[in-house]
Amino acid sequence: QMCIRDRMYTVQNLLDKEHIKILKDYWNRNIKNIKHKDGHYNLHNIEILYGKKSDEEYNKVLLVFDDITTRKADKHYFLNYVENSFARIHNDVTGNQTFVTLLEQSNNLSGGQTLTGDLQYIDLKVGQTLIYDHDFKHGVARVNRGNRKVFVVWY
Questions:
Q1: Contact 20, 126 (CB under 8 A)
Q2: How far apart are CA 95 and CA 41, in angstroms?
Q3: Is 61 helix (H, G, I), strand (E, B) or coil?
Q4: 110 in helix, strand or coil?
Q5: Are 83 and 147 in contact (CB under 8 A)?
Q6: What is the mean pLDDT of residues 108-136?
Q7: Using CA atoms, how far apart are residues 11 and 122, in angstroms rounded to an integer?
Q8: Which whole number is the average pLDDT over 63-80?
Q9: In terms of pTM, does the model score above 0.90?
Q10: pLDDT class of 6 with cuts at 50, 70, 90
Q11: Residue 133 Cα distances to 6, 76, 112, angstroms
Q12: Is the pLDDT higher at 154 or at 119?
């Protein structure tokens, strides 16, 4: 575990390559359902896609997180940070724990790093999951170029 000013978070490899592929395929199959949001809670200029548990493959991945927490997810969705996207420093007002998995980032990505409340970077690699409690202050730096796609699950 890593500690930033008494707020705990961990970075773990929870999903394997097949799980990542399932999530990326789900995004690609559901492009028509992607919404563009600006000023959506703390998210700005973001693409968001809500997942459906009725999709058998998608649900397999969600169950990985359910098994770890021994609970059912409250919310689960994808975020694509595109040019000029960012998330203001905030803490999650719902749930007890949040899981954020980096699914992909473009080769030309500039910006878009995960930030802690005291503006330290958390360097996630594709496939890694950031886990933190609801009171952990975090955000995402503005994307200057490229994109960064994550899968978010709240418990």
A1: yes
A2: 15
A3: helix
A4: strand
A5: yes
A6: 92
A7: 9
A8: 94
A9: yes
A10: very low
A11: 12, 16, 21
A12: 154
